[in-house]
Batch of 4 targets.
Target 1
Amino acid sequence: MKNVNQGHRQRLRERYLAVGLDSFKDHEVLELLLFQYIPYKDTNKIAHALIEHFGTIANVLNAKPEQLTAVDGIGEVTAFNLALLRDVWFRYNKSMLQSKPLNDMSDIVNYARQLLSASKDERMVVVFLDNSHYFMGIREYTSHNENVVMVSPRQVVMDAMELKASSVVMFHSHIKGKPTPSVDDDVFTERLFVTLTGINVVLVDHIVFGEDNSYYSYLEHGRFDGMMEKFLDVNANRKQQPHDK
């Protein structure tokens, strides 16, 4: 079957190859994507319909397949492929961030947002790094509950020892409410900080995200200074105590 839109499609492809996506409107970007899945229909109309229905290209790619098929011209296969793009993009970003050291706070926050995106339960993610802050491994802990994560400092320490990590970065999300740490968050963080310090592993940061994507960083708020002072005081007191002969 002849494709009456082939000339238009070819012009869009050539334009993309020449200048990239910067000059494209959102519906034109969707057109380029739809070319791959819908060979014989006017994808310009379908792309406009998607933007009209969802408002933005971000909302289109965040939509579930069953929501996408509500738009005329979008079948199950096309809806699946559009929904898949978002998860592939997150996986790409995660892979890119894992290939370089997490030294910069903006990189750490960006990486954390990628890991915790679209989570419906309160979830804790711990990233283990080597002495150059390169990615070594990751552990995720969740209780499938909106309000609590069931994990102990001991478990995190055991994982750090297993991976022979030099440092740890910890993230978790408050699904509902602000990112302000709870009393339980503070207690957990201090216990983990002290225990990791005792085995020469650095807790680089603990970042808490709120429902509006705002965050609270223990490092940025200087919370680790007090924990280190307490750790040093406890160790000093232990050394001063007499030992049984």
Note: The chain is about 50% helix and 15% strand.
Target 2
Amino acid sequence: MKKLPFFCIYAIMLISGCEKTITGGDGVIDNCNPDDYDLYDYYTDQYGNAGIVAAKNTDAASWVNYIIVLSLDEHVASWGPEGMAVFPVFENFNASYPDSFFFGLQMNQIIEEKGSENFPAFDWCHKKNRDVKAIHSSSWVLPSEADLNIVFSNDTDMLNQALEKAGGRPLCGDDDGQPLYWTATEDIEDFFYFSDETIEKDYDQANRAIPITASNLFPTSMPSWNKSHEYRVRAIKYIYFRCDIE
């Protein structure tokens, strides 16, 4: 078990690759040693926010490395108001779709600028940050779809055991079935493949955001994506990141 907190920075990754620059890293020290934490280790920051290392890739042969912490606790909240598109989509719809690292950070920063108090799922995550700074590269944030895909692709049974051992809530229980978790990603891609092999070619960025389950499945009913619905919320933070592509 690790007892001391580490505050780390990570580089912006654009859809086309990575840059060696830091975003929003004011006051945040260098990346922690990737050997300091193993998968399913306990983590706590200086404010007492605790979590479990839910994803780790430090393979030297990989072009991108990271350590992601998932909060011990969770919340139930709506995503935010319907009728408001948040992420600025550009001319080429698919080219601008943020299916990559750090979209989550960018989205949380945009939400903060608009007023997190109007976006309950984000607000709950942002209130974990008591450093009196704008959302930055090691803040607790609402994870993007890509972030949660990474977390949920690991052994959720092992993750749940670690969460429970640390006094946290598991991702799902027998009485819960497969609950939905909000992501920071709006419904801004022009088609999705669902778990029942159907294809949906409709999208509605202003009114819908993407929830997924701990089994990494999309709900098959598009109305389930409405931003006003209340689903579970988990916060994440990156405590290590390295990218070799410039």
Note: The CA atoms of residues 78 and 229 lie 5 Å apart.
Target 3
Amino acid sequence: MKTLEEAKQAVIDDFSMYDEWLDKYEYLIELGKNLEPFPEASKTDDNLIKGCQSRVWLDYKVEDGRIYFTADSDAIITKGIISLLISVYSGRTPQEIAHDDFGFINEIGLKENLSPTRANGLVSMIDTIKAVALENCK
């Protein structure tokens, strides 16, 4: 498994291959299509991320001191965004996630290239992932 820094750098490198944001959106859509299937039974209000215009579900389990995330969304770009986040943070320790600044999101220019409602949703996704990590820090 890549280190957290290597995983974030891989995302930065992947996004730098594309010059146009339209191509970057296509890449996000592809990421969303590759997301593991999310069980219908997990699409509950408890797993729904508050603050997203579209519906985004995030579930997790803790095994051997690491958090493993699963997610889904009813919107294709949003599904790609949550897929991107869990590709970086799933399998990390709560401490790694809680102490990370999620700065790679700014480096790839994602937040400023989203609509205001999607940008707010991105912040809600990050806040939820961090909250899960903080509640599992020992």
Note: The longest strand covers residues 56-63.
Target 4
Amino acid sequence: MEQIGTVKDREQQVIEDFAVYDDWMDKYEYIIELGKSLEPYPEGKKTEDRLIKGCQSRVWLDARKEDGKIWFSADSDAIITKGIISLLIGIYSGASAEEILASDFSFVEKIGLSANLSPTRANGLVSMIETIRRMAAE
């Protein structure tokens, strides 16, 4: 499972992917499709210690470090949230801790994601980002 390009390259690709859609309903559809493409998450890893705190829906995130890279896997019980975590791990999985910590996650603003989520989902997004950053810092 090799990631193409740097974190910055992958962030830019997401910005370009979202630019294709004019309407936020189409962007939500795209996010839902991302969630459907997420690799299956083992039931045995759906544990309390892997739940992201601060999300209204349940989001599990797991990380393993291998050869200086961090590989994330995740799942959620809500389809939009599953798409959002899929988007995040698509960018940050396979990156080094340094790359993740150097990211300002500004692509989230550039694609308009925060502004087009309900307040509870936007808070959940912040919690997901904080958890990815914390895992990279450990």
Note: The longest helix spans residues 119-137.
